[in-house]
Write a structure and sequence with these properties.
Elements: H1 5-31, E1 54-62, E2 73-74, E3 78-85, E4 90-98, E5 104-114, E6 119-126, E7 132-140, E8 143-147, E9 165-174, E10 177-185, E11 192-202
C-alpha cells in the first residue's frame, strides 16, 4: 500500500527527531570536558587565603599621612563575615566603614584566584564612588599585595588632578586576625601609605559573639 501524506510526514518527523537527539547526545559528549588539564571546582591556591574565612570584628583606623607615626584614629568597630561562594571558588564579605566625619562607606569584596593567569584577584564594590575596583597580585614576604594598576580602575582625581594607583596589602596575618592597609602610587613603583587600614580580629568577645 502506498504511503499516505500523513505517513510520509510522520516518517519525516521521526527522522528529524532522531537527528536532533543524536546531535544533542554528541553535544553533551563534547561538553563533558570543560576543565581540560585541571580539576573542576575551587583552585588549590584558594587555600592560601582560607585564613580570611569566618566572622570578624573590624576596626577602621585613619592616620595622618603627613606623619603616620602619630596615633591613628579608630572609628566604629563592626562585624563582617568572609563566606565561601560557589563551592569555595570565591570568598565574599560586606563591610560598612565609618569615616571620621561620620559618613558610612558600604563595601562588598569578592576574593578569588585566577588559575589561568596565576594571580589573586579582589574586586571591591562600593556605594561611595559606585566603582567596581579590581586588584591583582600575590604574596610577597608573607603579605598579600594587590594593586589596581593593570585593571586601571582608579578612583577620582586628587587635589592636584592626578588619579593615583591603589594598592591593598593584607599583612600581620595570624590565626587571631590580620590588617588590610591601603597605599597609593603615581607611577606603580613608589608607594605611599594612604592613612587607611582595617584591623580584623576574631569576633569571639561578648560584644561580638
Amino acid at each position: 500500500m502506498a504511503p499516505t501524506p500523513v505517513t510520509r510526514v510522520s516518517a519525516a518527523i521521526a527522522i528529524v527527531l532522531a537527528l536532533v537527539l543524536a546531535h544533542a547526545a554528541g553535544a553533551r559528549a563534547q561538553q563533558l570536558d570543560l576543565t581540560p588539564g585541571f580539576d573542576p571546582g575551587p583552585p588549590q591556591d584558594m587555600r592560601k587565603i582560607a585564613f580570611l574565612e569566618g566572622r570578624w570584628a573590624v576596626t577602621p583606623e585613619f592616620g595622618d599621612v603627613r606623619d603616620l607615626s602619630r596615633p591613628w584614629l579608630a572609628t566604629k568597630t563592626v562585624t563582617t563575615t568572609f563566606r565561601p561562594r560557589l563551592g569555595g571558588a570565591f570568598l565574599e564579605a560586606d563591610l560598612a566603614v565609618t569615616w571620621p566625619d561620620g559618613q558610612v562607606w558600604q563595601t562588598t569584596s569578592i576574593w578569588s584566584f585566577d588559575r589561568f593567569r596565576k594571580t589573586f584577584r579582589v574586586v571591591y564594590l562600593d556605594d561611595l564612588w559606585g566603582l567596581l575596583d579590581v586588584y591583582e597580585g600575590d604574596f610577597v614576604d608573607g603579605r598579600l599585595t594587590l594593586s589596581n594598576e593593570r585593571a586601571a580602575t582608579l578612583g577620582p582625581p586628587g587635589a592636584d588632578g592626578r588619579r593615583l594607583i591603589g594598592r591593598t596589602v593584607v599583612r600581620d596575618i595570624t590565626p587571631g586576625g590580620f590588617v588590610i592597609e591601603w597605599e597609593t602610587s603615581a607611577d606603580g613603583r613608589t608607594w605611599t601609605r594612604a592613612g587607611l587600614r582595617w584591623v580584623f580580629r576574631r569576633a569571639a568577645s561578648p560584644e561580638f559573639p
